[in-house]
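can u pls check wat happens w/ histidyl-adenosine monophosphate
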Amino acid sequence: MSNKYQVPRGTQDIMGDDVSLWRQVESIIREQCARYGYQEIRTPIFEHTEVFKFQNDSSDMVTKEMYTFLDSGERSLTLRPEGTKGVIRAFVEHKLYGNQAELPYKLFYMGPMFRYERPQKGRYRQFHQFGVEAIGAKSPLLDAETIALGYNITRAMGIKKVKILINSLGDDESRSNYRSALREHFRPYLGELCGDCQRRFELNPLRILDCKVDREHPSFKSAPSVQDYLNEPSKKYFSQVLQALDDLEIPYVIDSRLVRGLDYYTNTVFEAIPEDASGQQAAVFAGGQYDGLVEHYGGGNLPGVGFGMGIERMIDLAVQEQGLTAVGHEADVYVISMGNVGSYALKATETLRNAGFRVETDYQGRSLKAQFKASDRLKAKVIVIIGEDEYSNGQVVIKDTVSKQQVTVGFDKLLETVKGFTGE
Ligand code: HAM
């Protein structure tokens, strides 16, 4: 029986020095988003189920993996399994498409997402995604720029060993022709494919190529390639995306089997995977272009492009490649107190904190040795020592742990002296 006082399967507590990794990643993301003109949006963690669930959706995420529940008012709500749909819902709800001069509207988001998946390394039920959406413009240059942003963020985290896979699913006409070709191809093998693929055959045969169960079936190797079904405008669009990536010196590999797991993609799709990855689940960021989403929510015929990035996976890779290292909790100053000094040491502590220093002190009358140890652990550059004599004389002893210089001054000189020692 599972212990109900442990985290639910597929979730984790993020704590201790690891939190510093998350903060570093978040600050790199914010910095890069600012450079590219993306503004942050924070949408609800749950939405009406209809926001995520479309009729005839064939993706695993929507059909099998959503955390959907009825609230006490009998409304069907769903914990967001991804960021894109909620962001487009908000874009339409707030009529952000109103000012044409502001398009594309560039939004980024960060936060927990929820999918009922089989947990394993790098795959969780609650995971964190950073994502971007550039809404209201369609251009091969914008697609390339979006990929560049994802790529630059991985570089900024010190991750070098990723490769970008890219493909085009083409426009409506190309995809429709390709779907017919896939149906024709898979029809004779239908009885040998899994139940999901049999459903996918009707609903969206592109999804068959994404199947984890039937991947090794011989019919997969001989399946037609989408590249052969792209019409001229789609071919041209795709070649312009590739040209822009070449010009930006962003390395990529064309993968004509790449269809991505979600239904809304049109034209460009891409994912970044570790160079040594074998499985399909390893993507650190993935996304693509979408023509129909804004219209689905009633916002007119506006395209978009974006990607989602798994923060847990990025941190794993960055640590592995030593691009990021966890840093421990540190203090600038440690205030040691000895004997009965009332709240005098706490007052010194607070005075320094209010001036902006990170300051720790002892609350439990621990030994001098223990307090020195604590200050060492926190790498405090300056130690303030307060004993009963200092307390009664209104003084403090201040020690610079680097130069070993030590002075005794009046309380009114505390801040000034610490500033002198720390070079503030
Ligand atoms: P996605 O490919 O489903 O796309 O997810 C994007 C990224 O989220 C993945 O590449 C992976 O890094 C991370 N991820 C997904 N599921 C899990 C999981 N169970 N555990 C850990 N990490 C995970 C989307 O979600 C789209 N909304 C991306 C997008 C934005 N397309 C256009 N705009």
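The chain has a mean pLDDT of 95.
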